[in-house]
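Batch manifest line 272
LIGAND: S-adenosylmethionine
JOB: complex structure
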Amino acid sequence: MFQLPPPKDDGLYIPTVGQHSKAKHYFLTRYIDAFTTAMKDKWGELHYIDLFAGAGIEKLRDSKELNWGSPMIAAQARFPFNRLHLCEKSKRKFDALKSRIQEKHPNPQVLHGDANIGIHEIVSDIGQNSLSLAFLDPYGLHLAYETLRSLSAVRTDLIIFFPDHLDALRNWEHNYLDNPNSNLDRCLGPGADWRSLLDKTPAEYRAERLRNLYVSQLKAHSGYSYFEYERISHKKHPLYILILCGRHKLAAELWRKIAEKKPDGQRTFPFD
Ligand SMILES: C[S@@+](CC[C@H](N)C(=O)[O-])C[C@H]1O[C@@H](n2cnc3c(N)ncnc32)[C@H](O)[C@@H]1O
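JOB STATUS: finished
ARTIFACT:
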């Protein structure tokens, strides 16, 4: 399995993140390797999109390890992407990312600002004869459904961070229920009646039903047909799920293959 040597402290800004970030990057690294290997001879160009890109290097809170961030993992793929398209809202992280990424990949598009606005500039920079992989990894419910619709103008598979426990289920009753323009409404998109769904569903089934609602929105309005899921937890507490969305069954097949083996070395079995 392809693995990058760990980063060194380069003196630029390094944010501290939760330990669970390592599991997220485990799946991303493996998927990028499988995706670029499988697709490199099938498409004119391969692009990588990272709308919530971070600083490029992060420090894990518990172990103090340094880890590559998602854009730097993509920049060092064994079979390189033709172009990277990155967006980051925090100026401090954007400055660090811009310096780091230029060392590893030629001519990346790096935007500073809100991804839900920058998406239009990114989409217009990607040609039709290309396939993209988009990693959409905000902290909470900050990925607007409209942004996914804009992204569907280019041919792209998606890996979405969906913060069910981290945000939606933690905040819906107190912060979102009475606000018709809440983050949960913007994330799930038009016509998603999450209020009555969560109200009538027993607590232990809410995460799964909410995920199904999100996926049905993606199927209906964004043209994705193939979905795979990976639950990310910390010390047995569920935090969020990674959702792979593909237009072709090959994307789901690649995901199943790379996700067979978990970060702790365990294998899944068909009856799990
Ligand atoms: C979970 S971190 C991303 C980590 C990165 N994808 C990685 O895996 O290394 C989320 C990032 O999104 C940024 N962010 C939050 N809201 C944003 C927005 N609306 N547009 C762009 N970036 C945003 C935050 O500053 C933060 O760096």
